[in-house]
Structures are given as structure tokens and as C-alpha cells.
């Protein structure tokens, strides 16, 4: 019989995704057949995967990453319901990998939720037939009393999956014991009875300081605290933009600890209002000596060594926001390497036609930044596919060879307006210092990542970086965090 663990939180951004990924890798290490699952997700960070019918579809990034942790192929059943926010209270609804409709929140619950629940149960049952353990991830807080009657990712999953519930409690902002106590009090009685324990996350300091509080909260609730996880980011991709700065603040990820002075670089990423798939840059931030700075739209680019324009849920409106903030002038004056991925690639071209298909703009044609000789035309058909392309080491990828794997999720098609290098297949374009590609996940390919960083370090005057060390697997780091700081008693499986 399949066992299910629901990793639920007392709040959003509590560390559920990291705990779920760590559990998947721990179980996989022990030879257990395990699969991740999240009934309903809300994120613009998505991946293209194969569905049960053999067709390509989309799932949230966390379940894709957790499938890698579990060492199993990702499928659309792992995240059967995905809501991709597109602004103004509206989201694109994706059911079992297929985009269904753009729906306001009220319409989703009134007209689509029952069908979404059926799809979630169907997908769960398929996974349960194939695996010994399902590690399900909840969403937000499990104790939102206004949502419990339709809380698909938490309450409904606990019930239809007959799941043991592991609560994740974030101590970083204080109030962890009160949050745990209040969550348990507000949970439906039948789901409260399923709680097998709690884990405290993001702790800074000496765990001995928590001992008296742990003893009292266990006595008051009868729920064991199974571990205290230190604040040590393993480097897994983030699920949503909660982790990113606002559009008016600059935040840097990655660091140069242990890197000799003068041997680090900064890659600037404009924090688009509708940014999506920003996990594309985490492989860069995980490299020693590389920082990724998320920049306000009006930032001066004088202190960055490369610029990467990210994906976006709305290319045209974000392009106009960049132009209105003066970013175009900054980009034209910037002399270092520039990369555009998906929507960022479309922005770097000469123009975008049929613009109203994708945006709220009434314009049919919008000028791009003109740094690549391509033209993009939008259509209503959405391309969702995982693929591998040959590398032609041109421009900033000089020296790279072999192939690059990734995925495409977009509605536009970009066509060269003149002869141009295409180092990453037909859906790419490059000059000596500008590269555009539709390939999300491109920097997960070590050959591409190292070629790009070689160019960035050279531009920054850092010389030969051929002996740079690569980062350790974030999946193993997440598993080690749990293994070193969490006991396995009271869980359905022995960890």
C-alpha cells in the first residue's frame, strides 16, 4: 500500500519545498520508489514535462525539482492543477499540463474547482499505483479557515490521499510556537488527527535555546518536534516570486565567500513586474564567485558585469515598463554580455507583432530594443516542449560544444530578419555579445553555463577561470540538512 506524507506549512514560504525535496532524496537514497505531488500550485515558474498521454504539458518548478530529487521522470500528474498569475486578479488555468482558460479567482472556484479536484484525485491515484511513497506538498498555510472547504493542496489532499501530515514551521520571523499552536487549533479535527509531527525551519543560532519551548509545545499539543533545520539554503530553485525583491528594491543572491578578491562577477537581472521562470538564474548564483542581482527597472548598469533579461508572463507590457523606466537607454550604453531568455529574447529583437494576443496593450506592433535582428509574432497557440539542441559555439558561447537540454513554454515565434548566428538551435539568435534563446533551463547545462561565465569573467577583466569549482548538488544538500537535523520517528516511513 502506498504511504503518503503531506508536507504542509503554517504559512507561505516556510520551507515546504525544501523539506519535500529533501525527503524525496532521502527516500530515493534508501531504494524507496518515491514521487512528489502537489494537487494545486500557483506559480509562473513552470517546466515542460510529459503527461500520461505522451503529450507535453506544464507543471510547477518545485515538483519538477522534487522529481529530480526522487530520481524519477517528472510527469504532469505530479502537479495536476497549476494557476499561472497574469495580473489583474486573473490566472491561466493549467489542468494536467494543458492550458485550459484565463480565469478570475472567483470564476475558478465557481466553475472549475470541481473539475480540478477530479483531475487531482485521478493524477494522485496514477502516481500511487506506481510508487511506494508519495511526498505531497501543501500550499501556503493549512489553517486558512476561509478556504478550508475548497483547499485542494492541503485539506482535500490530506483526506483523499489518507496522508500523514508533517507541519513545517518557519522560525525566521519569530512566533513559531504560537504559529504552530494556532495552526493546530484551526485545522479541521479529522486533519488535525493526521499530524505526525512538526519540523522547525530557518533557525539561526544554537538549537539548545529552543529546548524548553519544544518541550512545552509538545506537552500542550501532543505533536512531536521532529527536527530543527538551520538556515542554510541548499540552492534549490524557488517556487514563486515571494523570494524575490519588489520592483523597487535590489537584492543579490549567491556570494563570493572563499573566492579571492577580484575574482567574482555580478549578473544583473531586471526584476520585471510579471517575471516568470526566474529559476533560470539559480545555477549561476550557485557557482562560486558569481552573484545574481535582481535590479529595479530604473537601475544603473554600471556595477554589473552581464545582463540577463528573464522570462515574463507578459512580454509587451513588461517591455513597455522597462522602456518607461529608462532601462532601454541603460541597456544601449552597456558594453558587456547580454542574454535574453524567452520573453527577454523577444524584447531584444527589432519588433513584436500581433502584440495584443499576449498583452493588455491595444498596439498591434511594438518596437523591441533592437539588439538582435529578429522579429517576433504572437499567436494563440502555446508551445510547450522539452528538447535538446546542438550547440554551435558562437559569440559568448565560443568554446562550448555538444548539446544543451531545456524546455520551451511560449506563445510567440521569433524569425531572423537577416543572417544571424544561432548557437542554440533555430529558436535562438546571437551577435558577438548578445544572445537570445527560448530555452529555459539553459544555464543548467554545464557546458553553456561555463562558456557564458568564461565570457563574463573575461569582460570583467578576471582572466582565465578554467579551474573554477562547480557547485555541489542542491538535492543532496537538502537531503543532508534533513538527515543531520531531523529524526524519523512518527513518520510513515523510516528516514
UniProtKB/TrEMBL annotation:
<dbReference type="InterPro" id="IPR011698">
    <property type="entry name" value="GATase_3"/>
</dbReference>
<comment type="pathway">
    <text>Cofactor biosynthesis; adenosylcobalamin biosynthesis.</text>
</comment>
<dbReference type="InterPro" id="IPR033949">
    <property type="entry name" value="CobQ_GATase1"/>
</dbReference>
<dbReference type="InterPro" id="IPR004459">
    <property type="entry name" value="CobQ_synth"/>
</dbReference>
<dbReference type="Pfam" id="PF01656">
    <property type="entry name" value="CbiA"/>
</dbReference>
<feature type="active site" description="Nucleophile">
    <location>
        <position position="342"/>
    </location>
</feature>
<keyword id="KW-0315">Glutamine amidotransferase</keyword>
<keyword id="KW-0169">Cobalamin biosynthesis</keyword>
<dbReference type="InterPro" id="IPR047045">
    <property type="entry name" value="CobQ_N"/>
</dbReference>
<comment type="function">
    <text>Catalyzes amidations at positions B, D, E, and G on adenosylcobyrinic A,C-diamide. NH(2) groups are provided by glutamine, and one molecule of ATP is hydrogenolyzed for each amidation.</text>
</comment>
<dbReference type="InterPro" id="IPR027417">
    <property type="entry name" value="P-loop_NTPase"/>
</dbReference>
<feature type="domain" description="CobB/CobQ-like glutamine amidotransferase">
    <location>
        <begin position="266"/>
        <end position="447"/>
    </location>
</feature>
<feature type="region of interest" description="Disordered">
    <location>
        <begin position="234"/>
        <end position="264"/>
    </location>
</feature>
<dbReference type="InterPro" id="IPR002586">
    <property type="entry name" value="CobQ/CobB/MinD/ParA_Nub-bd_dom"/>
</dbReference>
<dbReference type="Pfam" id="PF07685">
    <property type="entry name" value="GATase_3"/>
</dbReference>
<dbReference type="GO" id="GO:0015420">
    <property type="term" value="F:ABC-type vitamin B12 transporter activity"/>
</dbReference>
<dbReference type="GO" id="GO:0009236">
    <property type="term" value="P:cobalamin biosynthetic process"/>
</dbReference>
<dbReference type="InterPro" id="IPR029062">
    <property type="entry name" value="Class_I_gatase-like"/>
</dbReference>
<protein>
    <recommendedName>
        <fullName>Probable cobyric acid synthase</fullName>
    </recommendedName>
</protein>
<feature type="active site">
    <location>
        <position position="440"/>
    </location>
</feature>
<feature type="domain" description="CobQ/CobB/MinD/ParA nucleotide binding">
    <location>
        <begin position="5"/>
        <end position="233"/>
    </location>
</feature>
<dbReference type="GO" id="GO:0003824">
    <property type="term" value="F:catalytic activity"/>
</dbReference>
<comment type="similarity">
    <text>Belongs to the CobB/CobQ family. CobQ subfamily.</text>
</comment>
